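Dock acetoacetyl-coenzyme A; give full complex structure.
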Amino acid sequence: MSFEHILVEPQHAPQIALIRLNRPKELNALNLQLMRELRDALKELDNNDEVRVIILTGNERAFAAGADIKEMAGRTTVDMMKIDQFSTWDQIKRTKKPLIAAVSGFALGGGCELVMTCDMIIASESAQFGQPEIKIGVMPGAGGTQRLTRAVGKALAMEIVLTGRFINAEEALRAGLINKIVPTETYLQETVKFAQQIAALSPLAVQLAKEAVLSSFENNLSEGLLFERKNFYMLFSTEDQKEGMAAFVEKRAATFQGK
Ligand code: CAA
């Protein structure tokens, strides 16, 4: 896979793929082409049986400082509607495999929204999160008002969205936005270690469990419980369920084949 604005390693570690946003001079500002490349790479990795977990990262200074302001500055409402950039984001959201963001430096605007589209977030000590769109006369457009509010609650979400203030990794952890903080020098290695725990499990169970957790954002409780139950029952038709439970009973480690 070769792209202009992202680097893709399908086997960064066994069964773990890495996508690196790669516009370092622009702090990985998310232009339309980068987002389309990201969508295409995710689709390919989702269909690759050798991949069980996907890590999305930037560099030490910036995960991504938002949508590309220079690309957007002259656009009208009609241009924005015709370009329909968020249909690309909708496709990214449909990634079936677990997607882990490894964040260092700035994750702002669309960068913060992209991180929140991922399933889990590992942050370096120097990570900063924010929705500063308000400072350039707009507001979040790729899910910030919705996903941030669900993650951190109304009070802090309002403050972040209405003032544009950044929060650091400590505050993000306290607020429930991220999973953990790791040293800046080793943030990617730590994320790989975290991903390895998931890659060792049944990919079928992981996929259906991810789907069920995400359904809690869309469904009411009764619908969500029903959805969960169906996915739970479905896993009893997999070899991985037989292997996982047999291994427990026989007091040995399970080997999951994704079958
Ligand atoms: N779009 C385009 N270019 C960007 C950018 C962005 N979002 N963020 C940074 N850059 C560029 C800068 O223009 C600069 O380029 P030049 O060297 O050619 O001037 C380069 O990246 C380095 O940036 P700075 O010199 O500004 O670096 P800094 O360390 O002084 O400041 C920063 C870092 C605080 C992140 C600052 O760059 C900044 O405020 N960036 C914009 C953040 C922002 O407003 N993001 C929201 C965008 S809108 C959006 O995302 C909408 C949505 O919901 C989808």
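Observed: The first strand starts at residue 6 and ends at 13.
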